[in-house]
């Protein structure tokens, strides 16, 4: 039986691969070892201290971390912890939304006075405002993660507005090219490895000139990164574009 001391010397990505092959000992070890990481991710969503022993949100985060171990693929280009962080946050967000939509149980013995009976329109307005604030915060988190991913390709969020094709047809063509890039395993692996476009191979797969590919290189890479990540809000901007 492998001791925990031995597991500490094994690279994380290698341990994840073992988990995916059915290594339950390593799976349990990682679930135990990364509880502080999980609690931190959950805390960032809930904006408060998370007690692993008492808060349901932590259980959701722990389950999400386990799911991330099973579904992670290094082909996506991001590290396991970056992937796990996004999965945890997404699951906790879904849980919070589910809880807020679920009607709260009301005791038959409970009494209400005039002050407790809020105007339904006011309640709806407050809930809508809260949801907008939550969406804004999560969108901000997503953009912060996106900036980190762009940096690996020597791109910045600010310059995307400058390199974005000005005409709609050109933008759609660039997004379509990014989708082709993402959907081809060999081209996708090339981009992950080299952090640049495989111009020679790509020009044979899309109806776009080499000159146009080179001109829109940064924008295509930026869209490609969005497609490879678990971005809920950023992907909204690409719905129906280039398909």
Task: Give structural notes.
- The model is unreliable at about 105-115 (pLDDT under 50).
- Helix content is about 65%, strand content about 0%.
- Helix 4 crosses helix 5 (about 55-70), helix 4 (about 35-45) crosses helix 6 and helix 9 packs across helix 13 (about 215-230).
- It is mostly helical.
- It has 2 domains: about 10-100, Rna Polymerase Sigma Factor, Chain: A (Orthogonal Bundle); about 145-240, no CATH class.
- The chain has 13 helices and no strands.
- It has helices at about 5, 10-20, 25-35, 35-45, 55-70, 80-100, 120-150, 160-165, 170-185, 185-195, 200, 210-215, 215-230.
The level of helicity is 55-70%
Which overall shape is indicated by the principal axes computed on the Cα atoms? flat
Query: What's the alpha carbon Rg, rounded to whole Å?
Result: 22 Å
**DSSP strand tally:** 0
Please outline the major beta sheet.
none
Strand content: under 5%
Low-confidence stretches: 104-117
Q: How many structural domains does the protein architecture include?
A: 2
Q: Could you state the order of secondary-structure elements as H and E?
A: HHHHHHHHHHHHH
Q: Give the termini distance in whole angstroms.
A: 51 Å
DNA-binding region: 199-218
Subunit structure: Interacts with RsgI.
GO biological process, one term: DNA-templated transcription initiation
InterPro entries: RNA_pol_sigma-I (IPR014244), RNA_pol_sigma_r2 (IPR013325)
